[in-house]
Amino acid sequence: MTTKSALHTPVVRPEDENLGVVANIAYGFQHVLTMYGGIIAVPLIVGQAAGLTSAEIGLLIAASLFIGGLATLLQTVGIPFFGCQLPLVQGVSFASVATVVAIVTSGGGLPSVFGAVIAASLIGFLITPIFSKIIKFFPPLVTGAVITTIGLTLMPVAARWAMGGNSKAPDFGSMTNIGLAGLTLALVLLLSKLGNAAISRLSILLAMVLGTAAAWGLGLVSFAKVTEGDIFAFPTPFHFGAPTFELAAIISMFIVVLVILVETSADILAVGDIIGTKVDERRLGDGLRADMISSAVAPLFGSFTQSAFAQNVGLVAVTGVKSRFVVSFAGLILMTLGLLPIMGRVIATVPTAVLGGAGIVLFGTVAASGIRTLAKVNYHNNMNLIILATSIGFGMLPIAAPTFYHAFPDWFATIFHSGISSTAIMAILLNLLFNHMKLGNSDQQSVFVAGIERSIRPEALRNLSEGDYFTEGKLFDVEGNEVCVTADCDDNLKPAHEH
Q: Is 19:320 a contact under the CB 8 Å cutoff?
């Protein structure tokens, strides 16, 4: 009877915890504030490149918020075959900006962009089974490298935000902007240290509110335009015209979709590692399918490719709030903002510098989470250290030198301009080459291995007793009895912690 009950006991996943409506709204709103600047950046850039009016750009923004909310709900709540059911916020992918602008400015216009996104996303949907099978090639060495790179890649974004966001503005990089970012950062740290559990978890949101209030007190924020414009508006299908399908645009966009699939795979695996839940092949496939179907539907309402937001992965790591229902409420808030432009205008009053101060903590935490994962990797007498060094170094190239690939073909530059996809591709290939294809590997594979200082974990030392000695690969106690040093011990041998 006991065995039967145990067999039918449901497995409790950390992401399935429901914190209640009030907490879900509060933490969900914090997620929205964290990614709001990123989700409106793409329609702003594309709208300006397309020569749209302010009102039309507003429609692009509203559509992006609404579709981002729908995509987030699909990813977090999930239905059969769609949604990884993890705390991932979905929104317009920044990876597509360069390609979208190129299509728009080459004469194709927004209808050509929308057609390319639909076609490329449907092709991406068809190949998701292939991508979902690569999970076995994502050991901690690969995932740790990618997670670390995600955080490092986002740091320039935090720096630009802290400087004011708009490089053409006269106050870009001013002491006022950077000081406001510094104040927000200090508030995050202060609230995290002095507050109780609830305040600590909401430290990002509270710091943003207080930072905005300080900016308002200094006359840097105006709420005058909050009441200007429509209060309620539903995204109109095909407002910018029916999509057109051009082969060149579709091919260019498909390359972007491949990049998004790699980045989303990395984000799904990263958040799974951060919250301590299992992400298998099927779950990864469900997440990628949700990504692609959301991207295929988005253009119908005037939006673009969808993907998981890495900065919100950082927020999960900072707050320790693992519930997917919190992010589901973030999706509902995004949908509401898409239907209520007035609410979007309220959030838009948050100064970019305030976002920058919070971003330093958020993005730095992502990198720290990756370093924590890399601590699990064995670096003794193998090529793992050089795999890691090469992968992260390769991923940093487009970050350190944004024009590094400017002379390469467009398809190549599109893929490797992303530090995240660069690191992921290099780490996977090198891991396959050195750890799966062992033909040709030497006993001492790398000069880097020889340079590693030997170390012993403290827990290993605590299990030793006075007089223990090690010889010929075996551990003996003071009386000369062999001590077991592995989990699979002979019955006649006693484990190190019992002798």
A: no
